[in-house]
Amino acid sequence: MTSIAVVASACIAATGVPPCTVAADTNHVAVVQRVEARHLTLDVHDSRGIGGMAVETRGTALFNRITIVLHLAGLEYFELAWGDTCVKNEWSVQLGHAHQYVLDRARGDVAIAAADPRWIPRTNVNGSIRLEAPEAFLRGTNTAFSARWIDFHR
Q1: How does DSSP classify residue 14?
Q2: Which of 33, 57, 73, 124 is the most buried (most CB within 10 A)?
Q3: Residue 119, SS3?
Q4: Residue 54: exposed, middle, or buried by beta-carbon count in 10 A (0-12, 13-18, 19+)?
C-alpha cells in the first residue's frame, strides 16, 4: 500500500474512525470499504436487489478515485447524488444499452453523454458491476454522496 493507505491507517489509529462512513438504508445491504493508494472501493452486497447508501468521506483530498462495486445479478437503475447534482442511469436489458440523465431542477431529466464530466463509467467484472465516481464529483469539494440501485433480477 502506498502513502494514502498509511494516511488512512494513521487516521484510523489516531481517531478510531475510518476515512469514510457508510450508512446503508436497509439491513439487507452490507458495504465493505477498502482503501489502496488514493482509491476508495465500496463493495456492496444486497440480498434483495433494491437499496441505497449514504457515504461521507473525511475530506476531498483523500481519494482521487472512488469505485462502487455492486454484487448483484444485474443492474436496471443506479443513481448517484452529491451537492446539487443527481445522475440517474437506466439500463435496458432487452435493448442492451444505457441512458444517463442529470436531474435539472428547471428542466427535469437532461440526457448526458460519455464526454460529460458527470458521466458514471460502468464495467462488468467477474459477475459484479463496477461504477466509477464521475470526474465532476472527484474534482469538486463535496465530501458526501448517496447512491441507490435496483437489480433487474430481484
Answers
A1: H
A2: 57
A3: coil
A4: middle
Please name the amino acid found at residue 104. Answer: D
d(CA 4, CA 88): 30
- In Å, how far from its chain's centre is CA 43? 10
DSSP 8-state symbol, 13: H
Q: Where are the domains of the chain?
A: 3-150
CB 38 within 8 A of CB 29: no
pTM of the entire structure?
0.82
Tell me if residue 112 falls in helix, strand or coil: strand
Cα-Cα end-to-end distance for the chain: 37
63-66 contacts: CB < 8 A, separation 24 or more?
Answer: 63/4, 63/19, 63/35, 63/38, 63/39, 63/138, 64/38, 64/39, 64/138, 65/38, 65/39, 65/40, 65/132, 65/133, 65/138, 66/39, 66/40, 66/41, 66/42, 66/132, 66/133, 66/137, 66/138
Please say if the pLDDT value at position 139 is more than 90: no
CB 54 within 8 A of CB 85: no
